[in-house]
């Protein structure tokens, strides 16, 4: 069985003291690949260092996270483009809109989001979307950008059934993580109404740890717990969940199993 954590911040300071143990623990839980989203220029080198250490397992994205869209966002977008000119990445991400922390930056968040979507489409790459308190705003941008080249993952999906349908209509997979195990998460109530082809698994570690570790540091090994919950929701084996979600992830991010 092979599981993929399609969204994990393993380069976070939270893992500085035990990163090798964390990755080995993930291997032991059948999690074989880790897709790392970017945040901003300050995290780039740590991402590269981790990829160099685990080249067959760690796959990198590049993008500007919406909470890092500040007055200098033009410089940060230039950094993203510079990195792409020097090497390859599996996606543009994580990008999007976050209105939880700061609504005053909505205008420049939308601009940064749209430009990175257009950049991804030009490169025929998937996008990985961060959405917090911003479904309407995200959908408004996607509605104007939708075409055959738009595809990707709606990371850490927490919306309702209608929002799930709308996200999927834009050629997005839904990234399912620890929230699916929360009693108040609610997404567990309707996911079974969709085909398994619409989902990938993730942790968003070190954030949003699943039950029974909620409130503690999340780890990529907990992808297994998310898979177990999905198996329960769909009434199938964990192996079936792993097979389907791994296939979906490899297809979206255009990765061969031998890479």
In short:
With 259 residues, this protein is of the alpha/beta class. It has 8 helices and 8 strands; from the N terminus they run βαβαβαβαβαβαββαα.
The N- and C-terminal alpha carbons lie at a distance of 17 Å
Total number of beta strands: 8
Strand order of the largest sheet: 4-5-6-7-8
Estimate percent helicity.
Answer: 25-40%
Output the radius of gyration: 17 Å
Class by helix and strand content?
alpha/beta
> Which residues form runs of ≥5 with pLDDT under 50?
none
In sequence order, what are the helices and strands, one letter per element? EHEHEHEHEHEHEEHH
Helical region count?
8
Mean pLDDT score: 97
> What percentage of amino acids are in beta strands?
5-15%
Molecular shape: globular
Question: Could you characterize what this model shows?
Answer:
With 259 residues, the chain is an alpha/beta fold. Helices cover 38% and strands 14% of the residues. The chain has helices spanning 19-28, 44-53, 73-86, 106-122, 135-145, 161-169, 223-234, 238-252; strands at residues 3-5, 31-36, 58-60, 92-98, 127-132, 152-154, 172-176, 199-201. Strand 4, helix 4 (106-122) and strand 5 (127-132) form a beta-alpha-beta unit.
Write the layout of secondary structure elements.
Blueprint: E1 3-5, H1 19-28, E2 31-36, H2 44-53, E3 58-60, H3 73-86, E4 92-98, H4 106-122, E5 127-132, H5 135-145, E6 152-154, H6 161-169, E7 172-176, E8 199-201, H7 223-234, H8 238-252
Parallel strand pairs: 1-2, 2-3, 4-5, 5-6, 6-7, 7-8
Helix pairs in contact: 4-5, 7-8
């Amino acid at each position: 069985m092979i599981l993929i954590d399609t969204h994990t911040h393993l380069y976070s300071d939270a893992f500085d003291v035990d990163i090798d143990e964390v990755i080995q623990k993930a291997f032991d839980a059948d999690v074989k690949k880790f897709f790392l989203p970017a945040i901003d220029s300050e995290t780039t080198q740590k991402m590269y260092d981790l990829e160099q250490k685990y080249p067959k397992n760690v796959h990198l994205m590049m993008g500007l996270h919406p909470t890092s869209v500040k007055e200098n966002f033009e410089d940060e977008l230039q950094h993203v483009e510079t990195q792409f000119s020097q090497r390859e990445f599996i996606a543009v991400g994580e990008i999007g809109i976050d209105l939880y922390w700061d609504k005053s930056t909505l205008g420049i968040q939308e601009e940064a989001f749209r430009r990175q979507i257009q950049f991804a489409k030009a490169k025929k790459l998937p996008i990985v979307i961060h959405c917090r308190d911003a479904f309407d705003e995200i959908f408004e941008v996607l509605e104007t950008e939708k075409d055959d080249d738009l595809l990707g993952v709606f990371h850490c999906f927490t919306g309702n059934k209608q929002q799930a349908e709308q996200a999927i209509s834009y050629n997005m997979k839904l990234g399912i993580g620890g929230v699916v195990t929360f009693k108040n998460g609610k997404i567990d109530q309707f996911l079974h109404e969709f085909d398994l082809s619409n989902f990938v698994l993730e942790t968003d570690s070190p954030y949003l740890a699943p039950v029974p570790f909620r409130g503690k540091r999340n780890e990529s090994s907990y992808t297994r717990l998310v898979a177990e919950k999905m198996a329960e929701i769909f009434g199938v084996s964990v192996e079936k969940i792993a097979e389907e979600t791994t296939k979906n992830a490899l297809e979206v991010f255009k990765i061969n199993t031998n890479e």
